[in-house]
Write a structure and sequence with these properties.
6% helix, 5 helices, elongated, 654 residues, Jelly Rolls, 5-stranded antiparallel β-sheet
């Protein structure tokens, strides 16, 4: 609800009010999915901060090119209002966007472009509701904004002053904003004359990206607008109607009641931005910004950190920030392991106002595998005004169970015994299972679903079992992979190894994009490899010979390409397998084989087959048919010795 009070003052001479300093409103329409603009946005924020007294920035998160995929994001929190502000007033012309009517800002990146109703590209900037190029910028792209353009917009004469005074309730869950607008000279609007009020958060910091561009730090984001008119679940108007005709020194005063949404992350970063806009030509005539409220007690969890552990005992650390104006002398931290509460930790030291501290929590225990550790803070100096930022969590792994030194892993289930996944942002997709085996064998494979992962920059780890390589003096790791791009994406696969319990990692394998691909790009459908679209990678682990504790992991980094498959992961002792020198080539077919293998060109008729552990599992003498029967072997990877040469073969009985 809002109340209007109209006051007329004609006593003061007009020449005193002949002009008013303009505060330029800068609107940026941006996206949590626009990964190409992230570096430029950092430069933009610096420019806006350097011109703090001349320009008031607000940023609208919108769903171009697509809406962020997580359930919660800046856009998803209040998409009805954001949609109205950027969409067409005559219905959408973009196939990906429903035909919800919006404000109808015209898109015209430069003066020579054909105008389009509604913002149709991101990022896009507006200065006082007008194109940036009206004030000397090259285009409407935010990268064209500079100090000279800002000063040119500020030099435009304005007829209005705005005064805003917020009155907060004790818990800062609502405010009444008193608005007073004064005209300088006579004025008549072209169209509907509106005052629009936005609640912004000056800084928002996430521990994981809310969209897929990897961005975790946002500035001056619009969070809520007042008042908002909703019809049939769609926003049809935002703002308060003002008189269309103004006389000199006329003052219009009214109150706006503002409920603060629960999704605000930091109450001390809130500010109101108000502006006067003529909907006839969309020009903004004046804007104003309030100071943030002074929150008495507000303790924020910045991050929770746990290293990879080689035993069941782990020790978390907690980074906290006192956002309030007074020292915090006590609080209670309640930890949870996989949702199960643990004994509370009582903090009794002093944390000064605006200070940050890292606290080492007590040690806890967990079983082998992946876990979620979360923490909730309460009783901050007795009470905390803002509970929305009092929690944090992290994903961590326990690698306390050592496996034997050698591995022969085909993914008939997922994850296999003693393997585990660390999905750091806890949102799908991540590492999973595919029924397609390496080189089209049965039994399945590990799959990373880049095809459906919109979170560009998302990193997920697939951990091997912890290994004891004692007595292994020439370890070699091999695995089969298949991958395709959609067009030219740079999805990345790395293999990393550590012999100090994850304190440091060495990258042994790193390929991305076309270097990773084993098949042509596929923009039509999700990639499923055929027999010929696999490649075997072999890595030398001799630097880790005889190491008693080794951790290995696959790391997938998403660039929204097509799918990746991994199968037949083997660690062997090369001293056992390749003590034989290569002499003569042989031709072996079919591969994969089921019951019979044909061997052509074998001078030595004695054929031996070894498993991946170096054990001989078949010995026979080749007759004049040049074939051997392998029906006694189970599905998997083997090594065939013929002519003093070792050849990798795959047995698959479909």
């Amino acid at each position: 609800m809002y109340v209007f009070t109209l006051c007329l003052f004609i006593v003061i001479p007009n020449d005193i009010f002949s002009q008013s300093t303009r505060k330029v409103l800068y609107e940026e329409f941006t996206s949590e999915n626009d990964y190409q603009w992230v570096p430029g946005d950092q430069l933009l924020n610096t420019l806006l901060l350097n011109n703090f007294n001349s320009i008031i920035p607000i940023k609208w998160p919108i769903d171009l090119p697509v809406a962020p995929s997580p359930t919660w994001s800046l856009y998803q929190s209040n998409k009805a209002e954001f949609n109205w502000r950027y969409r067409s007033s005559t219905g959408s012309t973009l196939a990906a966007i429903p035909s919800t009517l919006g404000y109808g800002y015209p898109s015209q990146n430069t003066a020579t472009n054909t105008p389009v109703n509604g913002i149709n590209t991101i990022p896009t900037g507006r200065l006082d509701g007008q194109h940036q190029w009206n004030f000397g910028a090259i285009t409407d792209h935010p990268s064209s904004l500079n100090t000279n353009v800002i000063l040119a917009a500020q030099s435009v004469t304005t007829n209005f002053r705005i005064a805003m005074t917020p009155s907060w309730n004790p818990n800062f869950t609502s405010a009444v904003v008193q608005v007073s607008i004064t005209s300088i000279n006579s004025f008549t609007s072209i169209g509907a004359f509106m005052f629009r009020l936005c609640l912004i958060e000056r800084e928002i910091h996430f521990t994981s990206p809310p969209g897929n561009n990897g961005q975790m730090h946002f500035y001056n984001m619009v969070r809520k607008c007042y008042p908002t008119t909703v019809v049939n679940n769609s926003v049809t108007q935002i703002g308060t109607t003002l008189p269309s005709i103004w006389s000199p020194s006329q003052t219009f005063t009214f109150n706006i009641n503002c409920n603060i949404p629960a999704y605000i992350k930091n109450l001390s970063e809130m500010a109101f931005v108000g502006f006067i806009q003529d909907d006839g030509d969309r020009q903004i005539h004046q804007s104003e910004r309030t100071l943030p409220p002074s929150i008495p007690n507000d303790l924020s969890v910045v991050s929770v950190n746990i290293p990879v552990n080689c035993n069941a005992v782990f020790t978390p650390s907690l980074c906290i920030n006192n956002l309030g104006p007074v020292s915090v002398n006590a609080f209670t931290a309640t930890p949870f392991i996989d949702g199960i509460p643990q004994p509370a930790y009582i903090y009794t030291s002093a944390l000064a106002a605006n200070a940050t501290a890292t606290i080492t929590l007590p040690s806890y225990t967990a079983n082998y595998g992946s876990h979620v550790f979360s923490i909730s803070i309460s009783n901050v100096n007795g009470t905390d005004i803002n509970m929305s930022n009092n929690s944090g969590k992290t994903v961590f792994g326990i690698s306390s169970m050592l496996m034997s030194s050698l591995i022969s892993q085909k993914f008939s289930s997922f994850p296999p015994s003693l393997w585990y996944v660390l999905n750091y942002d806890q949102s799908p997709p991540s590492w999973g299972y595919s029924s397609v085996g390496g080189y089209s064998t049965t039994g399945g494979s590990a799959k990373y679903d880049f095809y459906n992962n919109l979170n560009i920059g998302d990193v997920d780890d697939l951990f091997f079992p912890a290994l004891d390589l004692t007595g292994v003096f020439n370890p070699t790791l091999s695995f089969d992979l298949a991958y395709a791009q959609i067009i030219n994406e740079n999805d990345k696969l790395e293999l990393k190894i550590s012999n100090d319990c994850g304190a440091t990692w060495t990258t042994l394998f790193s390929k991305q994009g076309s270097a990773l691909a084993t098949a042509p790009s596929n923009s039509v459908s999700a990639f499923v490899p055929n027999t010929s679209q696999w490649r075997t990678e072999t890595l030398n682990l001799s630097n880790y010979s005889n190491s008693p504790s080794v951790l290995i992991k696959f790391t997938a980094t998403c660039d929204y390409g097509n799918n990746l498959y991994i199968d037949n992961v083997n660690i062997i002792d090369q001293n056992v397998i390749n003590s034989i020198s290569e002499k003569a080539n042989v031709f072996i077919y079919p591969l994969p084989a089921s019951d019979i293998i044909h061997i052509m060109g074998a001078q030595d008729k004695n054929i031996e087959i070894y498993n991946t552990l170096g054990m001989r599992v078949l010995y026979c003498e080749l007759d004049n048919t040049n074939k051997i029967h392998v029906n006694a072997l189970t599905n998997g990877v083997y090594f065939l010795k013929a002519n003093e040469r070792i050849t990798k073969i795959v047995i698959d009985k479909k």
